[in-house]
Amino acid sequence: MNDLTSPPDLPAPGCGPAGPAIPVFAAADYKSDYKPIWCPGCGDYTVLSSLTKALAMLQRPPHEVAVVSGIGCSSRIPAYTQCYGFHGVHGRALAAGTGLKVARPDLTVIVTGGDGDGYSIGGNHFLHACRRNVDLTYIVMDNHVYGMTKGQASPTTEPDWDNKLSPGGTGIRSFHPLVIALASGANFVARAFSGDPNGTAEIIAQAIRHPGFSFVEILSPCVTFRPEQRGWKELVHKAPVHETDDPARAARRIMTDDGFNLGVLYAGNRPVYARPATATATPADLEAEFAA
Predict the structure, then answer these.
(1) Does 18 reside within a domain?
(2) What total of structural domains would you count in the chain?
(3) pLDDT tens digits along 213-245
(4) CA–CA dist 164, 194 (Å, integer)
(5) C-alpha separations of 80 from 59, 61, 84, 191, 238 in Å
(6) What pTM does this model have?
(7) CATH no. for residue 275?
């Protein structure tokens, strides 16, 4: 993981004798030397692999990519990449990622996190990041549980999930992130499954290419605290319909979704947020205003 000060000297994709571009960067070029410390069998391992595969598909040099995260198991991802990275505080990943993209529009900004970090303490940032439609990609690894803090129910946990911390379940309706993202104005909404790394890589690459705020929910089992999620591989299935740019049609589809449809639900064409023209005031002007 690098800081944002001095980009390394990396080659740019070149061309062969006949002209077509020759891939320069492989998936391994986007991985750091740090060894992931997730539990054996955690879905986040393959999400990391899918992310680096997607970046290799795009052939964006690592120093032109920034990965931002908050707190949680999945939020460790920036350290495991060779891109620029920022490991922020709990729930604030989208605030940091939005600020970075607005300040440095030349960077490909990818925000990663989990269902607790993103939908609980970070829920308000999620709504407004969708609404602002800044050109970045938000990847949420959803395992319906707080894994790093030992198995509490998260916003997406089923209301009847029985566990030691919530005997009989919470009784609280589950948060539906795809519905919220669509209603709040996300320009790209999709779901993937960590057990399908190649399909997930394709969706991530498509999300990064798509202008505006792209949201990808990745079902990523927590086999330590939710071992029954191993069965997700039998439940996931390709969505029976193609993506749409009609939010009303997407809403009808998603409200009847069983939670295991995979693919792109919505690819819209909302105008992307553009930073206002640079202010003409100087620091001295601002100081004078406060002194008055």
Answers:
(1) no
(2) 1
(3) 999 999 999 999 999 999 999 999 998 888 999
(4) 27
(5) 18, 16, 11, 23, 29
(6) 0.87
(7) 3.40.50.970
